[in-house]
Amino acid sequence: MKGSKRTYFDTIASGRIKQRKAKAYYWNDITDHCDFFIHPGHIVLEIGCGTGELLEKIHANKKIGIDFSPAMITEGKKQFPHLDLRVMAAEELKLEQKVDVVILSNLIGYLDDIQLVFEQLHSVCHPQTKIIVTYYNFLWEPVLKLGEWIGYKTKTPRQNWLSLSEINNLLFVSGFQVYRNSKRMLLPVYIPLLSELFNHFFAKMPFFRIFCINNYTFAKPTAKVCEQEDVSVSVIVPARNEHGNIAELVKRMPMMGKHTELIFVESGSNDDTWRMINEIKDSNTHMNIHCFQLNELGKAAAVRKGFDVASGDVLMILDADLTVAPEVLPKFLDVLCSGKGEFVNGSRLVYPMEKEAMRFLNLLGNKFFSSAFTWLLDQRIKDTLCGTKVMFRKDYERLVKNRSYFGDFDPFGDFDLLFGAYKLNLSITELPVRYQERKYGRTNISRFKHGLLLLKMCLFAARKVKFK
């Protein structure tokens, strides 16, 4: 079976480059979507690279392509002599190094044993390697067969029939965690105005997405990243008008990892919050507590200041209002270190809340933004504005370099971090927490003013993510 398929691809190799250019509109969309999640420092491997067009266009530090067809590789090297293209079967994958991203673009339909190939990927993966699988939607099968019959599309051998759920399951049984599925392109040929309308608008909308031709699956190895006792932890506490909560927070703060530091960042308080922070620091010399005061208002500025001065391998945000208990932070650390998530977001909307924990309009706003983010990021995001968020410092440093992509006008920092994690292609995991009523002070959120600002940021992000 493999021999006949190799013969087929060797036979069509000489015309492959011309055929690919003729269908450039379709193929460029796949390339652009993959490239969105690739960054200059990455090492990228494409399995089934054909004549190398996708690899040539993506922006990565090092690019390697393999294909089992010697003729395809020969044509690819003629076209792109600078690319590292190798004759190698997916089932016999052997590289001398680990890679950051593996792309399998419209390949799995031709594989005799998909699970075997997925299992082979572990040999080139480190715990944070990302797998991107693209495959066509089988609702399009009659249209594609018609295209072959009339000569518009190159005839192909019979392929595997795979739904998204079947691809996800094959990755799961092969030791990978699927963290996102997406769909793109309703009209795979370029027709002026009409293609833009269908592919940049209708294809992003609910219901219409069912009929998109291309399915995308994003996965990562199911593997522990590190031991908790091997990492240091920095807990950043933005504090404004929280005088009555500081002592209780420090008292209840758990010690995590090999070392835990507590960083208070105060800004714009009208009470004695700053004095209380310093008193607590002086009376708890056995703890590693740092305190900073900002003239700039806003939680986002406080979080960024805390992250900038933090020394820990893991960065955590804990709001000073104690509506989320400090005792839950070790659970966030466990999710991060176990590899179950690379950006861990608290979710307050699972467990019942205490009576006055969240005002009704705030609850409605959270549910609205939950729906918006679920649509924007192609994965379920139940609570966007929970203040408790955790990530590795090395990932945050990469996020900062990409911050300009989405803009810089988030007053709380929650959207900034979520959008940034998505652009970095981090697996975002939600961890349910109990949301408790404030015992001191009142919320610093202006429902209407800040709600409109967050809506503006959603619309801006939609343009950068969905309608790019």
- Give the total of beta strands: 14
CATH class annotation of the largest domain = Alpha Beta
Shape: elongated
Q: If classified by CATH, what would the architecture of the largest domain be?
A: Alpha-Beta Complex
Oligomer: single chain
Mean pLDDT: 89
Query: How far apart are the first and last residues' alpha carbons, in Å?
Result: 41 Å
Helix content: 25-40%
Residue fraction in strands:
15-25%
What count of domains describes the coordinates?
2
CATH structural fold name of the largest domain: Spore Coat Polysaccharide Biosynthesis Protein SpsA, Chain A
Biggest β-sheet: count, sense, barrel?
Answer: 7 strands, mixed
The CATH homologous superfamily of the largest domain? Spore Coat Polysaccharide Biosynthesis Protein SpsA, Chain A
Topology as H/E string?
HHEHEHEEHEHHEHEEHEHEHEHEHEHHEH
Number of contiguous helices: 16
Low-confidence stretches: none
Q: Key features?
A:
seven-stranded mixed sheet, 2 domains, single chain, alpha/beta, Rossmann fold, 16 helices, 14 strands, Spore Coat Polysaccharide Biosynthesis Protein SpsA, Chain A
